[in-house]
Design a protein that fits this description.
- This protein has about 120 residues and is of the alpha/beta class.
- It has one domain: Udp-n-acetylmuramoylalanyl-d-glutamate--2,6- Diaminopimelate Ligase, Chain: A, domain 1 (3-Layer(aba) Sandwich).
- About 35% of the residues lie in helices and about 20% in strands.
- The strands form 2 sheets. The protein has a 6-stranded mixed sheet, with helices on both faces.
- Helix 3 runs parallel beside helix 4.
- The chain is globular, with a radius of gyration of 13 Å.
- The termini are far apart.
- The C terminus is likely disordered.
Length: about 120
């Protein structure tokens, strides 16, 4: 498990606003640019990694009780999305790295995937 503030440092990311929620612990992460996948696979208290920047990202994260959002590929969310995230106290980090590199670093640091594979189907 890692704190969001530790994830920020690991990725060299930048937070868009200060929040006490940066000290929340994260165990799982999900990377997707498809909201249908986020809705299908996200676990509560997981971290969302995405390149989508609209307000629906914040609404989806709220609905699923996600811990925070990392926007990759140097993407910046729309101002209305930032305002809603601030209001709902959802940490938002901006990362210059690709989604692939971001996921690799987080996996290497010990975060687990939200996707639980059925090992018996191998």
């Amino acid at each position: 498990m890692m704190k969001i503030s530790e994830i920020e440092a690991l990725l060299g990311a930048r937070r868009l606003f200060d929040t006490a929620a940066l000290e929340k612990e994260v165990e799982y992460a999900l990377a997707s640019d498809l909201m249908s996948d986020v809705l299908a696979f996200a676990l509560a208290a997981s971290l969302l990694i995405t390149g989508l920047t609209n307000i629906q990202i914040i609404r989806t994260a709220t609905m699923l009780d996600m811990t925070g959002i990392i926007f990759v590929r140097n993407k910046r969310p729309l101002e209305e999305a930032v305002a809603l995230a601030r209001k709902l106290d959802i940490p938002v980090l901006l990362c210059k790295k690709s989604m692939f590199e971001t996921c690799g670093l987080l996996y290497q640091a010990g975060l687990k995937s939200c996707t639980i594979l059925d090992e018996e189907s191998d």
